[in-house]
Design a protein that fits this description.
This protein is an alpha+beta fold and about 170 residues long. The protein has a single domain, classed as Hypothetical Protein Pfu-838710-001. The chain is built from four helices and eight strands; from the N terminus they run βαββββαβββαα. It has helices spanning about 15-25, 80-95, 140-150, 165-170; strands at about 1-10, 30-40, 45-50, 55-65, 70-80, 95-110, 110-120, 120-130. It has an eight-stranded antiparallel β-barrel, surrounded by four helices. The protein starts with a strand and ends with a helix.
Amino acid sequence: MSFLNVEIKARCSDAAFIRNYLLNQGAEFKGTDQQTDTYFNVPNGRLKLREGNIENALIWYERSNQAGPKNSSVNLVKIEDAKGLKETLRKSSGIKVVVQKKREIYFIGNVKFHIDEVPELGSFAEIEASNLYADLSQEQLKEQCDFYLAAFGINDADLVEVSYSDMLLEKSI
């Protein structure tokens, strides 16, 4: 399935505040997932295999590296045999980087929220407004992201332009 996300990633110094805000707004808590995202070498975009207790999927996405709300074109395929698929992709394309994280997952309507702990990188909050769950325009999705950025008190200095994979690759150089 293909869909559009408008999303942000930000450093998070007060996860308890965001968690409490979400719960007070009636967010649906999906759980805490220990996730492994394996990124593969591909000619365009990013291809990752997500393995977790809650989410398991092969995800291709393309987005620009910029601070603040950014468009992300996404294709997602749910996976039943992650181990077999990972081995096949490793042999065919090679592994670029592996990201481990502890992720709390929340939803309010069509907006998905993550509170992440990533070893070597720290704590982060993500907001993903998606037209997968609602027929909304890119502008409406951006307005949702902007609303929650303000509600969470996230300032421009906290915004992260790149993915966890880019951050880990940069640390390894």
